[in-house]
User: Which sequence fits this backbone?
């Protein structure tokens, strides 16, 4: 159990976090929680990037992680804006009750 | 040794925070547990000698994004929502698919396991320099354009979110 | 000197020119008054009866009418003169045959006769003058001329004067063509032509329905015979490859008589069928009595002297053929004898003067065929020649009587006329003696010769002779019955008729006298051989015709000569005279001495009387069998055929169309539409699951992305 920590551990961890986040996106009805789950996914990606950056010894992975965080922030802001607009119109934040994405 | 223990502690934060984020009924609780998960991630960054990211994670992610989420939660008033059913009806489908994907990732990892063994961390001049300096060095030279585009993106996001949230455009 | 022999082709053309002139231009020459009906034939003119002038004896005639009176008989006179000239010149030839081919009609029509090989049908407008046709043209032109002259008076007040002469001339043209032809095909042209003229002339009084019906009946019955003639001609063509008389006779020369029924017998039989139609023998005789609907001159010329004798002429012309076919010849003789006695029996009880004469004609024609059938061809022609004289005379005399009485034809309403119309009476008296067979008049010689030949010829039989004798008795009887009832006894005339009675004008009586002279003297060139006190000059007729029939009679002539029993011939001759006299005496007794006796006999023998009076019901039988049978039976058969086959075909086509359209519809509905609907159905079926994908829920779309990731990852892992 007390093996030295290898990259594999980090990758497994990030994979697990990814799956948790995916399940959260697909399962929760509350759209705010869905957005939070998306953050989890992005985090898992960041862990992965940093692990490999450390593995190869250059900073490219971390730079990319910076950009991921930037985009995540932008995307969360816009997404929350959409959520508010939706809430204003439909009085709900539940994903089940907005089936507007169809013909 | 300490690395290992710290790793597992931070891993517990991450995973446990993640699970709890996904499963809490109260949105505010979910947000708080998200903070815990992000903190764990930050710790992991630190373990991997990504100090700048550790700092950015805490300041931006926790102090910006999650805070924003909390503001919105308070704006949207989710008290009644907390009383309703939280998981949608076909949750088992998502679970099954996730499991499948998990198995596939496990398989991949198994196949490439030997490549993931770290030798010695490469002792390059970069580690002596310091992480932040190195990041800045690459960021403003090689990745200048993406940097500027990212800033533009942030601008667009600001304008967009303001527009989206307005009552009357 | 005109070479009449080379001009014999003109002989038929004179009357043709006359016919064409009168039929095309006659209306202008003899304009009818504005009211056609008034002067239409058969309809009474100003006064009653058969058309008379307004003043008695004064017959107004337009100048155009005079021209017609000139042209009509005139052309026949021209033909007569040319015929006489040609015959005289023919007599001077060593080989009494002269053939003039005017124009080749069918030069070469190739065909394959039954015997194999190839042959050419060649027929021309060719005219043959030999002794037989010489006799015929003289008979036709002389009697024809006399009758034309008679008609000037008889038809003088009738409407359609030009039409009458036009048709009469047309008839003479066809008859002359018939007798002058050198091949069967041209003969047939004349044959048909005289049939046509007969139809036109019988139906001359076209306003009367009975006349039109009689004309049609004559034509139709003739046609039946003509069918036989045509078939015989075609069979002859197939057998010999030619229809020219000389060629056919040449082909027949040297053959042996047929035993059994072979192709020659078939040809002869078919030709004879044609003859029965034209010459009114059993079974095609029914048209002749009805033909009396025509004017009396027509009856005289066509149905006594000339047209009906065409059949006899044709048989005589084919003597070589008939001589080689004894079975057919016997049939000819038997039919002739049967017809003779049948017609005579009917004539015994008829009351219309013309009907009696019509049945008498049929009976005498039977005699001619009897003669031809037993091989005595020259005798048949001899009887034809003498019969032409006295029968034409009888008819013209009857016409004179009718004219005198203003239209009366029933002999029961005549009587006591002999002093009132003396010329008519005396000439008819001569003719009646002639037909009864009293010597030395013409009829005796010909009839006696027929009876003798029937008895003695190897082709004849005693039974046929007996029939002939009985018929002779009947002939004398009914002829003198006619005479006594018409001219003798108490007058039984109607009021009108007795006022009207007058002798006919000379234009009518002169021909009567001329014919009477012929009836007396015509027989004097055919004396019997046993009358040896007369020289051979008195047997001119037989010698004249001998070359024509030499081939035919060669077979048994020698045999006949050897067995010539003189005493039997004398006995039979005296017997026939006695029987004729007995017939006359019986008639005198019943109709002059005891006029009420016939009525008693009629009542005692009523069934026999009825059968005879109703003409043995032959017309009724034919009506039932053929007219009704064929018409109704054939009509019903045809209508059933039409309904079943024709309509069935149409209905079947309709059904087929509907059926194929049903198939089409099925194909269209199930296959064509089906494939279209199948495509639509498939798309619809695919759309159901596809629709499910579009839920509108965010998370389902995200799920699909995840599934896609899983699949893609799996794919890459499997590689």
Assistant:
């Amino acid at each position: 159990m007390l093996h030295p920590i290898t990259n594999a551990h980090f990758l497994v961890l990030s994979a697990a976090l990814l799956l948790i986040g995916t399940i959260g996106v697909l399962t929760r009805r509350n759209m705010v929680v869905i957005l939070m789950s998306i953050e989890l996914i992005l985090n898992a990606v960041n862990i992965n990037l940093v692990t490999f950056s450390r593995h190869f010894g250059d900073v490219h992975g971390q730079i990319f992680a910076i950009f991921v965080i930037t985009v995540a922030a932008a995307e969360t802001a816009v997404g929350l804006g959409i959520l508010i607009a939706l809430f204003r119109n439909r009085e709900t934040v539940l994903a089940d009750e907005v089936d507007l994405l169809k013909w | 040794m300490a690395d290992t223990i710290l790793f597992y502690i931070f891993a517990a934060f991450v995973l446990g925070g993640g699970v709890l984020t996904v499963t809490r009924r109260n949105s505010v609780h979910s947000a708080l547990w998200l903070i815990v998960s992000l903190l764990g991630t930050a710790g992991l960054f630190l373990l991997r000698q990504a100090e700048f990211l550790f700092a950015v994670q805490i300041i931006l992610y926790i102090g910006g994004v999650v805070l924003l989420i909390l503001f919105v939660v308070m704006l949207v008033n989710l008290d009644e929502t907390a009383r309703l059913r939280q998981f949608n009806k076909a949750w088992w489908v998502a679970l099954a698919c996730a499991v499948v994907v998990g198995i596939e990732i496990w398989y991949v990892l198994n196949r490439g396991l030997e490549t993931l063994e770290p030798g010695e961390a490469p002792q390059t001049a970069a580690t002596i320099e310091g992480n932040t300096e190195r990041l800045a060095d690459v960021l403003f030279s090689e990745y200048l354009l993406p940097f500027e585009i990212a800033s533009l993106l942030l601008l667009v996001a600001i304008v967009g979110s303001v527009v989206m949230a307005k009552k009357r455009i | 000197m005109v070479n009449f022999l080379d001009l014999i082709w003109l002989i038929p053309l004179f009357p043709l020119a006359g016919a064409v002139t009168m039929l095309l231009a006659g209306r202008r020459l003899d304009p009818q008054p504005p009211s056609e009906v008034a002067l239409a034939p058969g309809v009474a003119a100003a006064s009653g009866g058969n058309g008379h002038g307004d003043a008695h004896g004064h017959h107004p005639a337009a100048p155009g009418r005079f021209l017609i009176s000139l042209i009509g008989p005139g052309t026949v006179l021209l033909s007569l003169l040319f015929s006489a000239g040609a015959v005289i010149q023919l007599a001077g030839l060593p080989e009494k045959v002269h053939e003039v081919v005017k124009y080749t009609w069918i030069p070469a029509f190739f065909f394959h006769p039954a015997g194999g090989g190839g042959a050419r049908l060649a027929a021309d407008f060719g005219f043959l003058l030999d002794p037989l046709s010489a006799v015929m043209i003289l008979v036709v032109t002389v009697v024809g001329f006399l009758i034309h002259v008679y008609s000037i008076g008889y038809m003088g007040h009738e409407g359609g004067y030009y039409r009458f002469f036009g048709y009469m001339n047309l008839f003479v043209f066809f008859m002359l063509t018939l007798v002058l032809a050198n091949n069967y095909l041209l003969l047939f042209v004349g044959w048909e032509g005289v049939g046509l003229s007969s139809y036109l002339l019988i139906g001359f009084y076209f306003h009367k329905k009975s006349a039109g019906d009689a004309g049609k009946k004559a034509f139709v019955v003739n046609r039946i015979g003509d069918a036989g003639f045509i078939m015989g001609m075609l069979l002859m063509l197939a057998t010999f490859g030619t229809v020219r008389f000389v060629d056919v006779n040449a082909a027949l020369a040297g053959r042996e008589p047929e035993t059994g029924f072979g192709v020659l017998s078939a040809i002869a039989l078919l030709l004879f069928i044609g003859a029965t139609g034209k010459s009114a023998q059993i079974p095609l005789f029914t048209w002749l009595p009805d033909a009396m609907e025509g004017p009396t001159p027509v009856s005289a010329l066509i149905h006594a002297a000339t047209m009906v004798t065409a059949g006899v002429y044709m048989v005589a012309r084919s003597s070589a053929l008939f001589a080689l076919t004894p079975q057919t010849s016997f049939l000819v003789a038997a039919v002739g004898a049967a017809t003779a006695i049948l017609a005579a029996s009917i004539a015994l009880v008829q009351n219309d003067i013309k009907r009696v004469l019509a049945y008498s004609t049929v009976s005498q024609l039977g005699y001619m065929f009897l003669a031809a059938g037993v091989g005595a061809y020259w005798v048949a022609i001899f009887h034809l020649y003498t019969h032409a004289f006295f029968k034409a005379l009888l008819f013209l005399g009857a016409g004179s009587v009718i004219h005198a009485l203003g239209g009366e034809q029933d002999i029961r309403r005549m009587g006591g006329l002999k002093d009132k119309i003396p010329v008519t009476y005396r000439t008819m008296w001569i003719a009646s003696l002639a037909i009864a067979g009293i010597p030395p008049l013409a009829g005796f010689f010909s009839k006696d010769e027929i009876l003798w030949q029937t008895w003695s010829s190897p082709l004849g039989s005693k039974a046929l002779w007996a029939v002939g004798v009985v018929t002779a008795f009947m002939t004398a009887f009914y002829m003198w019955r006619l005479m006594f009832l018409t001219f003798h006894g108490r007058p039984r005339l109607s009021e009108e008729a007795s006022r009207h009675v007058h002798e006919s004008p000379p234009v009518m009586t002169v021909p009567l006298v001329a014919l009477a002279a012929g009836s007396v003297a015509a027989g004097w060139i055919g004396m019997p051989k046993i009358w040896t006190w007369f020289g051979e000059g008195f047997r001119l007729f037989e010698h004249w015709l001998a070359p024509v029939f030499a081939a035919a009679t060669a077979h048994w002539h020698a045999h006949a000569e050897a067995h010539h029993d003189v005493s039997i011939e004398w006995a039979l001759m005296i017997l026939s005279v006695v029987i004729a006299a007995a017939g006359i005496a019986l008639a005198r007794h019943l109709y002059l001495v005891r006029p009420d006796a016939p009525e008693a006999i009629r009542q005692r023998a009523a069934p026999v009387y009825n059968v005879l009076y109703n003409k043995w019901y032959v017309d009724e039988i034919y009506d039932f069998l053929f007219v009704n049978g064929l018409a109704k039976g054939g009509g019903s058969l045809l209508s059933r055929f039409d309904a079943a086959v024709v309509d069935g075909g149409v209905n079947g086509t309709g059904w087929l169309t509907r059926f194929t359209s049903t198939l089409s519809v099925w194909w269209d509905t199930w296959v064509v539409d089906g494939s279209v609907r199948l495509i639509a159905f498939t798309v619809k079926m695919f759309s159901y699951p596809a629709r499910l994908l579009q839920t509108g829920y965010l998370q389902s779309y995200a799920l699909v992305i995840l599934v896609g990731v899983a699949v893609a990852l799996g794919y890459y892992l499997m590689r």
About this structure: The two ends of chain C are 135 Å apart (CA to CA). The CA atoms of residues 59 and 195 of chain C lie 33 Å apart. Confidence is low (pLDDT under 50) at residues 34-40, 42-59 of chain C.
